[in-house]
């Protein structure tokens, strides 16, 4: 997918521009292929553990009446048995009002 996007000239030019603006230089596609290939299962687990150490945040837009509560989402992330018990719980009116403000 990474290389397929770079088959069109406008996409290549956009990629070069973004890289130069963001980092001051351009890296060839081979650099990113090697970086992706160098990611191990342990790397992914380490990052996931670090991200899951802090409590999740919840933001919603649109129809919010049936989203799970933040507590249910937190429990689902912490415990596999709790994940099975997550129910869709309607938000109370004060929460819905806060969401509309």
From TrEMBL:
<protein>
    <submittedName>
        <fullName>Uncharacterized protein</fullName>
    </submittedName>
</protein>
<dbReference type="InterPro" id="IPR050361">
    <property type="entry name" value="MPP/UQCRC_Complex"/>
</dbReference>
<dbReference type="InterPro" id="IPR011249">
    <property type="entry name" value="Metalloenz_LuxS/M16"/>
</dbReference>
<comment type="similarity">
    <text>Belongs to the peptidase M16 family.</text>
</comment>
<dbReference type="GO" id="GO:0046872">
    <property type="term" value="F:metal ion binding"/>
</dbReference>
<dbReference type="GO" id="GO:0006627">
    <property type="term" value="P:protein processing involved in protein targeting to mitochondrion"/>
</dbReference>
<dbReference type="GO" id="GO:0005739">
    <property type="term" value="C:mitochondrion"/>
</dbReference>
């Amino acid at each position: 997918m990474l290389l397929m996007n770079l088959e069109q000239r406008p996409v290549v030019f956009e990629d070069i521009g973004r890289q130069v603006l963001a980092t001051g230089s351009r890296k060839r596609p081979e650099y990113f292929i090697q970086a992706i290939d160098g990611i191990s299962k342990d790397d992914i687990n380490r990052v996931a553990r670090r991200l899951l150490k802090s409590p999740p945040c919840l933001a919603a837009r649109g129809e919010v009446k049936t989203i799970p509560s933040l507590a249910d989402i937190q429990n689902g992330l912490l415990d596999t048995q709790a994940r099975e018990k997550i129910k869709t719980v309607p938000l109370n009116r004060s929460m819905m009002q806060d969401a509309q403000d």
